[in-house]
Structure prediction request, 174 residues.
Amino acid sequence: MNTEPELNFESIVDAYYKPLYRFGYSLAKNEHEAGDLAQQTFFIYAEKGSSLRDKSKVKSWLFTTLYREFLGRRRKEARMDSYEPEMLEAAGGTVEPHIRRSMDANLAVEALDEVDSVYREPLNLFYLKDLSYKEIAEVLDVPIGTIMSRLSRGKAQLRDIFKRKEAETSENAL
Prediction:
């Protein structure tokens, strides 16, 4: 008797979502990020899973994919964090953490208003309403791949806007 689940997408999600979520949580120590990692893993599987030659290895493929996605996010965060303290110091020295969070939140809302509207909607739903990619796709009635693309491009626009605003702040401080 075969103990492997039937290998259609829905049964794979049913069988492995909870273990993947728990693994993601053990890595990220954050419920939302764990959910995002699991969803991203299934999204990647939906795109590339058909190329998996040995279907009995789907479980290890999913866990490896989640782990690689986690590492990729950490590398990206490390790159982003590497310039922030220097930019903040140049913009005005040290700031109390609670004041910095408030300033960052205000700056983020201002920056979000400057993002192109096609990207602003998914960003609002993702960051302010805390919806998953799937939920955003359902709300906007757009394919999940389009949502991922719009979020990626919107985040890039936000980064550019933050950099410009920080440069303007440091110029005004001079």
Summary: The domain at 95-174 is CATH 1.10.10.10 (Arc Repressor Mutant, subunit A). The longest helix spans residues 58-92. Residues 1-5, 87-96, 98-102 have pLDDT under 50 and may be disordered.
